[in-house]
C-alpha cells in the first residue's frame, strides 16, 4: 500500500535459509524436525517425571519443570514457522504475526534468563546454607520466585515489541533471519531508532547480563564452598547437583551474549543465524538430555516411572 511517499508494510518476508539449495534446505528441514520432536518429547518427559515421581519434589526439580515449560514455549514460537520456510517456502509472515512471534520470543527469552538465575540461587542456598535451605526455599518462596521469573518476560516483551512496531516501515520488508528478531526488523524501519536502541541495550543488560552476573556470583560462592569441604564424597555430590545447571547456563548464555553484545559489523547475518540456532533450537533440545543423563535422581525416577507404566497391574 502507498501512503504519501511511504509504502505501508502489511507483511514481511523471512529470508531464512533461502540462499541454500533446495536439497540442502530439505536436509535442514529433516534435521530441525527431528530436533523439534526430540525437544518436545524430552521436555514433556521431564515435566511428567518431575510431577509423577515423589522423589523429585524438591525446589530444584520444581524449577526444572518450569524451565521445561519455557523451552517448549520457546520452541513453539520459533521452529514451526522455520520448518515452513524450509519445506514449502512459506516465507511470508503477516505484520501481526511478526509482532506476535517477536513478543513471545522476548517473553520466553527474558523469563528463561531470570529462571536460570533463580535456579542458581537455589543451588547457592542448598550448598552454602544447607541448614536453612528448607526454610529459605519453602514451597511459597519457590512459587513466588518462579512467578517472578515468568512475569519478568511481560514488561520487556510489551515495551520492546510495541515500540518496534509503532515505527513506520516504508518499503523493504525482507527480514534477514529465520524469525522476527529485533535487530533485522529494526533495520527495516525508516525513522530514527537511536532512542529505541539505547532502551534495547538497557533491557539486554537488565535481562541477559545482570542475571548472568548473578549466576556467576552464585557459582563463585558455590565453588568456594565446595573446595572447602573436607570430604571428597561431599565435594562430588555437591558438584553433581550443580554441573547440569552450569552446563545449561554455559550453552545458553555463551551464544546469547555473542549474538546481542557483539558490534553489528563484526558478525555477518549468516553467522548470526547460526548463533541464534544454538539458543533457539539446539539448547532447548539439549536441556532435558543434560538433566536426564547427568543427574542420577532423574535417571532413577525415569526407571521407576517407566517400570510402573509398563509393568502389568495386579488385580
* CATH architectural designation: Up-down Bundle
Low-confidence stretches: 1-5
Main sheet?
3 strands, mixed
- Which strand order does the major sheet show? 4-3-5
- Assign the CATH class: Mainly Alpha
What is the CA-atom radius of gyration, in angstroms? Answer: 22 Å
CATH H-level homologous superfamily name: Rhodopsin 7-helix transmembrane proteins
Number of helices: 11
Overall number of structural domains: 1
Total E-strand runs: 5
Helix/sheet category: mainly alpha
CATH topology: Rhopdopsin 7-helix transmembrane proteins
Strand content: under 5%
Order of helices and strands: EEEHHEHHHHEHHHHH
- Identify the quaternary structure here: single chain
Outline the fold blueprint.
Elements lengths: L1 E2 L2 E2 L3 E4 L7 H31 L6 H29 L4 E3 H34 L4 H4 L2 H13 L1 H12 L9 E2 L6 H5 L7 H34 L4 H29 L8 H25 L2 H15 L5
Parallel strand pairs: 3-5
Antiparallel strand pairs: 1-2, 3-4
Describe the structure.
- With 315 residues, the chain is mainly alpha-helical.
- The chain has one domain (12-301): Rhodopsin 7-helix transmembrane proteins (Rhopdopsin 7-helix transmembrane proteins, Up-down Bundle).
- It contains eleven helices and five strands; from the N terminus they run βββααβααααβααααα.
- The strands form two sheets. The chain has a three-stranded mixed beta sheet.
- A hairpin with a 2-residue loop joins β1 and β2 (6-7).
- The relative contact order is 0.14.
- Mean pLDDT is 86; it is low at 1-5.
- Residues 42-291 form the G-protein coupled receptors family 1 profile domain.
Amino acid at each position: 500500500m502507498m501512503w504519501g511517499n511511504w509504502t505501508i508494510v502489511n507483511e514481511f518476508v523471512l529470508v531464512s535459509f533461502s540462499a541454500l539449495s533446495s536439497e540442502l534446505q530439505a536436509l535442514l528441514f529433516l534435521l530441525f524436525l527431528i530436533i523439534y520432536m526430540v525437544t518436545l518429547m524430552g521436555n514433556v518427559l521431564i515435566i511428567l517425571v518431575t510431577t509423577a515421581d515423589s522423589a523429585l519434589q524438591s525446589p530444584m526439580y520444581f524449577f526444572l519443570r518450569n524451565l521445561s515449560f519455557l523451552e517448549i514455549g520457546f520452541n513453539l514460537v520459533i521452529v514451526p514457522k522455520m520448518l515452513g520456510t524450509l519445506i514449502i517456502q512459506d516465507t511470508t509472515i503477516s505484520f501481526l504475526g511478526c509482532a506476535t512471534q517477536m513478543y513471545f520470543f522476548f517473553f520466553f527469552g527474558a523469563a528463561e534468563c531470570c529462571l536460570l538465575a533463580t535456579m542458581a540461587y537455589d543451588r547457592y542456598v542448598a550448598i552454602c546454607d544447607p541448614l536453612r535451605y528448607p526454610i529459605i526455599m519453602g514451597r511459597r518462596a519457590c512459587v513466588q520466585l518462579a512467578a517472578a521469573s515468568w512475569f519478568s518476560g511481560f514488561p520487556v516483551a510489551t515495551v520492546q515489541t510495541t515500540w518496534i512496531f509503532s515505527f513506520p516501515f516504508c518499503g523493504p520488508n525482507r527480514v534477514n533471519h529465520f524469525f522476527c528478531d529485533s535487530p533485522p526488523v529494526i533495520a527495516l524501519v525508516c525513522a530514527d531508532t537511536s532512542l529505541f536502541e539505547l532502551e534495547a541495550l538497557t533491557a539486554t543488560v537488565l535481562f541477559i547480563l545482570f542475571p548472568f552476573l548473578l549466576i556467576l556470583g552464585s557459582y563463585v560462592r558455590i565453588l568456594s564452598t565446595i573446595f572447602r569441604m573436607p570430604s571428597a564424597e561431599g565435594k562430588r555430590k555437591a558438584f553433581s547437583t550443580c554441573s547440569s545447571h552450569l552446563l545449561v547456563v554455559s550453552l545458553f548464555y555463551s551464544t546469547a551474549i555473542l549474538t546481542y553484545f557483539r558490534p553489528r559489523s563484526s558478525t555477518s547475518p549468516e553467522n548470526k543465524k547460526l548463533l541464534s540456532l544454538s539458543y533457539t533450537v539446539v539448547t532447548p533440545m539439549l536441556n532435558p538430555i543434560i538433566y536426564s543423563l547427568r543427574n542420577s535422581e532423574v535417571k532413577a525416577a525415569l526407571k521407576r516411572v517407566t517400570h510402573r507404566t509398563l509393568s502389568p497391574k495386579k488385580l
